[in-house]
Amino acid sequence: SDSASDSEDSSLSDSELQEAFARGELKPGLNVVLEERAKRRNDAEGLKQCLAEFGKELAWVERLDVTLGPVVDPVAQSASNTDAVDPENDFQREMSFYRQAQSAVLEALPRLRKLQVPTRRPDDYFAEMAKSDQQMQKIRQKLKTKQEAMERSEKAKQLRAMRKYGKKVQTEILQRRQKEKKNMLNAVKKYQKGLSDKLDFLDDEQTSSQGNKKGSASQRTKKGPNAKRRYKNQKFGFGGKKKGSKWNTKESFNDVSSFQSKVAHNKGPGKARKGGKKALNKRPGKRARQKMKNRAR
């Protein structure tokens, strides 16, 4: 069945090709249009014209042609032979080009100076750039963005390292505290069971707590008042000594100018009652004073 279908397709295709050939659409051969080769011509007049242009006697400053051999090799003290240069050796080949250009420069520079042709670029010379200002601005912005991204990544790395170090220190502190607690509990158990009669662990704990208290007290003394307290002291002044302000001194003890005997001994007007008895103390009792305080609240 497959062979029959292939034969039918081939027959159909052959019939179609025959019809196309009959209509003149096909040309004999492989149906490939071959273009004619261009005829070679000997343009003698054009060649002579080019030769005349080459032969014009122009000034050297207009031609700037220098034909020289390579410069003398300072190591070998002889001109390098072009035949001795290995074309497969990159270093020798590039050195021969370099010495050829060096010899041309050594020959051309004095001639240019003699003709008063400037060979150095002035300091205030600004050459036109190949790229536009917009393109350079984009490149500058891209470089700036890249630098900022690198700085952000460096800061993130430093923060991660600091967090890692802080976690490590915190873990070490917790482990040390757990170890100290475990050692103290073991010592207490040994003491309770009578395996040990030493109470050194209590002394160690007391000394450590005292050391912590001393350290905190020294920190407080070194720290001093905070900024808010210093500002208030500067604005309102120091209020003076509060504790012990009512204590007697030598001067206040000897000063009796404000002493009033009548008031002190209850001898003032209206103080004595009938019968010459002294006035009783009218201070309310403790319960009454407590009730008065409660009312005031």
UniProtKB/TrEMBL annotation:
Ranges of biased composition (kind: Basic and acidic residues): 145-157
Can you supply one Gene Ontology CC term for this chain's record? nuclear periphery
Is RNA-binding one of the keywords UniProt gives this record? Answer: no
Establish whether keyword Cytoplasm is in the entry: no
The record's listing under InterPro entries reads:
Ebp2
Task: Spell out the Acidic residues composition-biased ranges.
Answer: 1-11
* UniProt keyword annotations, A-Z: Coiled coil, Nucleus, Ribosome biogenesis
Any matching Pfam family:
Ebp2
Q: Where is the composition biased (Polar residues)?
A: 207-219, 254-263
Localization, per the record, is:
Nucleus, Nucleolus
Q: Which GO terms describe its biological process?
A: ribosomal large subunit biogenesis; rRNA processing
Show the ranges annotated as biased composition (Basic residues). Answer: 158-167, 220-233, 264-297
- Where primarily located? nucleus
Stretches for region Disordered: 1-20, 145-170, 200-297
Reading the lineage from the top rank, the first entry is Eukaryota
Its biological purpose: Required for the processing of the 27S pre-rRNA.
**Which family does the record claim for this protein?**
Belongs to the EBP2 family.
Return the protein name.
EBP2 protein
* Lineage of origin: Eukaryota, Metazoa, Chordata, Craniata, Vertebrata
